[in-house]
Design a protein that fits this description.
Length: 267
């Protein structure tokens, strides 16, 4: 095993963040990650396209919300930095935007400095926190100093909740986070679904679980439940590439994206 400033990186064990980095063509991945990712790609070669589609959704949803006036963003399950990051998109539209990235992954911790850049007018912070501990996350040092929970913000949970099974209280966790946000706040989510390629998804879930990572794909109805009580923005719950695609943007086929996306506003 290797470490960075005393943090055990467990490089001999596949990690979902590094596997995702590999799908995106990044370089922050190691042999165990590439081996597990290779099994996934052998099962479903479209996973690379799905990762790119999810990343593009983050860009589009962030841009849309910033254009609508939101200037605070809380991104949970940040993952390994890949430019342009969320803060670059948001501050490109609203230079004074404030962004907090949160993750519980020591791999991300070692790369946090890459996230801690900002426009002069805005602010960007990184907090080490876990979505399964909403209270601890919302009171983490750095979060309250950066964003104001009494004002609207965008809560980003992209490609995260499929790593939180029902048995770990996924819906209850999201409801606790939603309850802490001011009216006018946005919930931004994307999620793996079995609706498009059920047999391949079943095998992918098995690969992740063998590598030590819980994974639960959810149907459209199960995904939609996360937005209960909030008002979905058009076009509603749709396959990831179909959420407000840019004009002329080459679209990943919905089946290859293998997931849904949605954005909702708290009344």
């Amino acid at each position: 095993m290797s470490s960075y400033d005393g943090v055990d990186l467990r490089l001999n064990v596949a990690h979902s963040a590094r596997m995702y980095d590999y799908y995106l063509g990044g370089f922050t991945n190691f042999a165990a990650d590439r081996e597990a990712a290779g099994h996934v790609l052998a099962t479903a070669p479209w996973v690379r396209a799905a990762a790119r589609a999810n990343r593009a959704f983050m860009h589009r949803s962030t841009r849309s919300l910033a254009q609508a006036g939101i200037d605070q963003f809380l991104d949970i399950g940040t993952g390994i930095p890949t430019s342009p990051n969320l803060h670059e998109v948001a501050q490109g539209i609203r230079p004074g935007a404030r962004i907090v990235y949160a993750d519980n992954d020591p791999i991300v911790l070692t790369h946090a400095q890459a996230l801690l850049t900002s426009t002069r007018e805005g602010r960007t912070a990184y907090v080490e926190a876990d979505v399964t501990d909403p209270a601890g996350l919302l009171t983490a040092p750095g979060l309250r100093e950066t964003i104001d929970l009494s004002r609207p913000l965008a809560l980003s949970l992209n490609a995260l909740l499929h790593f939180v099974p029902d048995g770990h209280g996924a819906y209850e966790l999201v409801e606790r986070l939603k309850a802490a946000l001011a009216p006018g706040s946005a919930l931004v989510m994307s999620h793996l679904s079995p609706d498009f390629a059920p047999e391949q998804i079943r095998r992918i879930v098995g690969i992740y679980e063998t590598a030590g990572t819980a994974l639960q794909a959810r149907t459209r109805a199960e995904f939609t439940r996360f937005f209960d009580g909030w008002t979905l923005l058009e076009p509603g719950i749709v396959p990831v590439p179909l959420w407000r695609p840019d004009p002329g943007e080459p679209l990943v086929p919905a089946a290859d994206a293998a997931g849904y996306a949605g954005v909702a506003i708290r009344p």
